[in-house]
Amino acid sequence: MKHLFLLFILSTTLSLAKAQTERSFDSISPEKASQLIVGGTVRYADFGAKGDGKTDDINAIAAAHEFANKHQLKVMADERATYYIGGKDQTAIIQTDTDFGKAAFLIDDRTVENRNAPIFLVKSSQEETKLDSISSLKRNQLKIDVSLPQAALIAVTNSNVKHYIRFGLNPTNGSPQTDIFLVDKNGTVDSKAPIIWDFDQITEITALPIDEKTLNITGGIFTTIANQEPSEYNYYQRNISVQRSNVVIDGLEHHISGEGQSGAPYSGFVSISYATNVTVKNTILTGHKTYVTIGRADKPVSMGSYDILVNRALNVSFINVSQTNDIDDNTYWGIMGSNYSKNLLFDNCTLSRFDAHMGVANATIRNSTLGHMGINAIGSGTFLVENSEIRGRNLINLRADYGSTWKGELIIRDCTFVPAGGRSVTASLIGGHNSGQHDFGYTCYMPEKITIENLKIDDSNHPKGYEGPTIFGDFNSENTRASYKEPFPYLITQEVNLKKVSTSSGKEVRVSDNEWMFRKVKVTRNE
Fold first, then answer.
1. 31 lies in a domain?
2. Over the chain, what is the mean pLDDT?
3. CA neighbor of 447 nearest in space, from 425, 431, 459
4. How many domains is the chain partitioned into structurally?
5. Most exposed among 13, 117, 285, 297, judged by the fewest C-beta atoms under 10 Å?
6. How far is residue 275's CA from residue 255's CA, in Å, rounded to a whole number?
7. How many Å apart are CA 82 and CA 95, to the nearest integer?
C-alpha cells in the first residue's frame, strides 16, 4: 500500500496530459498574438494572470503555455509576481523553455478537485509508438528488431510475471515485470542502460521518442500549503512532472507550509518519469512531515512522502541540490524515492536520503552528505559512493522489504560514515535482512564484490560492550547452522576488499555478529 501510488500515477498522468492539451484558451486578440510571436516571449500577464498572491492564476498560466507551445515561444514569469494556484483541476503543459525567475508560486492544497493533476507537466510533443511485433526480450540483448525515426526510450511490461513481491508491514502481491532502456533508430540498445530481465512474454511495449533539443526550466520560488486530509494513502501529485527527455531544471526552490496534525503524503514536487537525460541542479527542496497510518498488515506504519521522485527514468542527475530542513531530523521523511530506473547520480548534494524502492541499475553518489535515512537501495550493476559523508543507520542499507538484493558490485571510496548521525549504536556498514523464506519474484543477491577504500568510521559514541563495527549486519539471526533451510536462497557476498579503513573507537572492523552466515566471505585487508 505504501507505494501503490507509484503504479497509479504512471497510468493516470499520460491520459491527464492528453486531456489538458485538448483544452483551448483563446483569450487574446489576433493583434496581441502577433506581437507575442514576433517578440518570441510569452508572459503570464499576457493571458490575464494577476500575480497578486490572491487571484487564482492557473487558467492564465495554462493558457500562456498552450500558446507558447503552439508557436514555440519562451515563457517568462514576472519577477515580482506571486502567482496563487488554487485547487482547480488544471495542468499547464510545458513544451518550451520556461524562466520562472524570481517569481513566487503559492500552491494551495487545502481544497483540491483532483490531487492527481500536476501543476506543470513537462511533456514531449512527439507521439509514442506501440511495438506489437516484439514478443520477447533477453537480458543484455544488444539489439531489438525495430526501425524508428529517431532514438527512443523503450518501456516494456509482462503482466504475467510478478516482481517486487513486498515483505513486511506493507506486503503486496508484486508488480508486473518491467524494464525501460534506450535504443537508437536502428534498435541498438545503449550498453550503459541495458535490458536487465528476460521477458519470455510481452504484454505491452512502447517506444517514446527522445527529444534532441534540451528544454530548460529555470528559477521559481514555489511554496506548497500542505493538504489537511486524514493520514491515509491518498498521494498528492500537485507538482512539476517531467515526462520528456533532455530537460534541465536549474535554480528552483520548493518550500512547504501549513503541515498540521494530519495529512496525506506527496509523490514528489519534482517528479521524473518516462524520460532520459534529466538534470536537476542548484535547487533547494523540502522534506515532508512524516505521518503514521495503518498498513496492510493492520499495524501502524510511517507513510513515505517525497519531494523528489524518479520512476522509469534513465540518466537522471541531481547536482548541487539541498533541502530547507535538517537532514538529520527524523520527523521529516527521506526526501527522495525511485523505482525502475537506471544511472542515477547525486553530486554535491546535501539531502536526507537516496532511495531505490523497486530497483535501480547503476547509481553514483559523490561529494555529498546524506542524512538520517542515508542510502537505501536494491538493484543491480555498480553502486559507487565516493568523497561523501553518510549519516544513516548503515553506510548502505539494502532494503529488506524487497529482499536486500544487489546483483553487482558496491564501491565505497574516500568517505566518512557517522552511524545514526552520531547516536550511540553498534555500527554496521552494510545492512539488510533476508530470511530465505519469502518469494520476492526473483533471485536475491548480496553484492558479489564490495570494495571499501579510505573510509573513516566515526563510532566515537558507542554503547557499552561495543566490540567494533561490522561489515555486515545480522541479515538473518536464524541462519546460524548448517541445518537451516532456505526455500528461496539468498546468495552471499563472495569478496570484500578493505583498504585504509579507520575507526574513531580504535576498534577493528569485524565481518559480522552472525559469523556463520558470512563464514565463506573472503575479506582482504590492506591497511
1. no
2. 94
3. 431
4. 2
5. 297
6. 25
7. 23
Which of the listed residues 209, 233, 266 is the one where a domain comes to its end? 209
* Any domain includes 64: no
Residue pair 84/55 in contact by the 8 Å Cβ criterion: yes
Determine how many CB atoms are found less than 10 A away from the CB of residue 422: 13
Which residue range(s) make up the domain with 177? Answer: 129-209
| CA dist., res. 217 & res. 247, Å (int) | 8
Phi, psi dihedral angles at 312 (to 5 degrees): 50, 55
Last residue of a domain, one of 183, 209, 235: 209
Report yes or no: 328 and 372 within 8 Å, Cβ to Cβ.
yes
Are the CB atoms for 239 and 122 separated by under 8 Å?
A: no
Residues 6+ apart with CB under 8 A from 520: 492, 494
Residue 452 located in a structural domain: yes
Burial class of residue 444 in the structure, from the number of CB atoms within 10 Å of its CB (0-12 exposed, 13-18 middle, 19+ buried): buried
Matching residue, cell 585504509: 500
Q: Judge whether residue 12 has pLDDT over 60.
A: no
**What is the average pLDDT across 349-356?**
98
**245: nearest Cα among 215, 205, 207:** 215
Calpha distance 279→503 (Å, rounded): 36
Dist CA 264 CA 286 (whole Å): 16
155 CB neighbour count, 10 Å cutoff: 21
Q: Look at residue 264 and tell me if it is in a domain.
A: no
3-state secondary structure 36-86: HHHHCEEEHHHHCCCCEEEEECHHHHHHHHHHHHHHCCEEECCCCCEEEEC
Cα separations in angstroms, 170 against 229, 294, 338: 21, 9, 17
Sign of the C-alpha dihedral computed for residues 50, 55, 60 and 61 taken in this order = positive
State the cell numbers at 459. Answer: 563510532
Give residue-wise pLDDT tens across range 376-404: 999 999 999 999 999 999 999 999 999 99
